[in-house]
Design brief:
8-stranded mixed sheet, Ribosomal Protein S5, domain 2, homodimer, Alpha-Beta Plaits
């Protein structure tokens, strides 16, 4: 028996530096390789959940618009099963992630939903359990349970696949500058893209092995306070992910002409001595990892080339929390 | 004893559809995988060679400009050794390959040099022997000994690594449209690019295996008169090659913003029912394989987007020959 109590959670999105790109279990959302991300401060989702015996169906509102509830209901079913309840729920979400930014709003969305729904259902989950639960909604959401740098260990089953925080080195004032290149809906979703790559890329098995090495190397760079190596590994890992897409059958790519232009600008800045590195996800937008001291130079150059309204800045953000 | 007789040869450049991208022997220029190309009619090199006992050094003129002779001398040493002569030679070359076109002038250059120099040295080489000899100058030159479609079998030593012609299907009026995107000298030469990829890409071994499959599949498509499959395999093979570059350490890419723009135009034309497929080599220029009947539509679209002076058209060209 549940009181119709409302819980509201806020979770921040994250940007992967060692990428998650391929599942070994589509249903449980177990990834092929472990990944590493940075949770971002300025981009988040707030979600309120109320389980109510009087409801005949789940309801889901996003940014005040009623939405198709099927994915949310599938997720709530997992929560209901854990809590041993039957009540339907109302879910109200507000995205403070610009939906055009290619900043994986599904990560913040399912992390916030996992926290709010589990509390509303009367569950008291520890963070690894919350992370596992969020993972069932969207893989990358398991990382948004934590702030700062986060590792998602691939694991081998539902129990062993969850995220945990990684110590941020002292004096590592990481920032991320997102350049919004396209607001078009992507033709090939992350889910479809990674599935095609797993099934058809001749390079896939070597991606998995290579990403394992990249993860070890990036953690070593973190332990050694080595931002340059940290950035280089991030950029190379992203390029290997995009190379997979080009090697799939049929091949595809998220890169647009302006993605290439922005990548070349970043390479040019490095030649001028600025430590900055790009990464791209399932879309054309270019995200630049840099140190706080270099943000204004990079923002200026991007603003001059693409317009200042296309340039967003974030830094390390907090863990998912109730509000 | 050689008379100072001059021989002049013309050889046409070629465009690889299954790419050569990596050597297993840097000195002999033995490739990691077999490749397949189309020799082009409008782009060629003419080279005259005269061995002359009175010369104290080799001389090399390209387009009426005296050049550093060291690479040519190294190649002539192979010819002199085969012919058992010591005379130095004069070499006059004219390139009818726009040097800005990224159309591998080294292929036509060394094919023409191999034919003219071997004749001038008194050798009567059959075509496989000429192909092996040209290969020592530049790998892809071994394919320019023949016209039309040509396979370079990788082989395993100097004797077994040479090219031979592949039957062009009836009614296969293949054309190639080259879009000149950049006239800048490339930062990473083919030689450096493929070397880095062989040494550092985690995907390299799978590229070799995948290209072997592509070669079998493209020859099947040729045997079945299937231009669509022929084009699709060509495009996917090119993308897998460019994916290798993105996966190298340090990563690199020959793609420019306009390369992506042109690739998207070709993809758009396919959605309109035009069978056209792109390929790119060690540079940003986009080459489109299509049938003769579709040339004018594609040329028009490229001319409108990039300027007609950037668009070159070629079709299947002849074997290297004396003139």
């Amino acid at each position: 028996m549940i009181n119709a109590t409302t819980y509201t959670a806020r979770a921040h999105t994250n940007i992967a530096l060692i990428k998650y790109w391929g599942k070994k279990d589509e249903d449980l959302i177990l990834p092929m390789n472990s990944s590493l991300s940075l949770t971002l401060d300025h981009f988040y989702t707030e979600t309120s959940v109320t389980f109510d015996e009087k409801l005949s169906d789940d309801l889901f509102f996003l940014d005040n618009q009623k939405q198709d509830v099927s994915n949310v209901s599938t997720f709530l079913d997992i929560v209901r099963k854990k809590a041993n309840i039957q009540s339907k729920a109302q879910v109200y979400s507000t995205n403070y992630v610009p939906s055009t930014a290619g900043l994986a709003s599904s990560a913040s969305a399912y992390a916030a939903l996992a926290l709010a729904a589990s509390k509303a259902a009367g569950l008291e989950l520890d963070k690894p359990s919350l992370s596992r639960l969020a993972r069932r909604g969207s893989g990358s959401a398991c990382r948004s349970i934590y702030g700062g740098l986060v590792e998602w260990q691939a694991g081998f089953d539902d129990e062993t696949s969850f995220a945990y925080p990684i110590k941020m080195p002292n004096n590592f004032e990481i920032c991320m500058i997102a350049l919004i290149i396209s607001t078009n809906h992507k033709k090939i979703s992350s889910r479809m893209g990674m599935k095609r790559v797993v099934e058809t890329s001749p390079y896939y098995s070597n991606w998995v092995e290579s990403s394992k090495k990249d993860l070890l190397a990036i953690k070593k760079a973190l332990a050694e306070n080595d931002f340059k190596t940290f950035g280089e590994i991030s950029e190379e890992n992203a390029m290997k992910m995009h190379a997979l897409n080009m090697s799939a059958h049929p091949h595809f790519s998220y890169l647009e002409p302006d993605s290439i232009k922005a990548m070349k600008i970043v390479e040019g800045l490095r030649l001028q001595g600025i430590s900055c590195y790009y990464t791209l996800d399932a879309g054309p937008n270019v995200k630049v990892i840099c140190l706080k001291k270099d943000v204004s130079s990079i923002v200026n150059i991007f603003s001059n080339s693409f317009g200042h309204e296309k340039v967003l800045v974030a830094s390390s953000g907090p863990a998912a929390h109730l509000i």
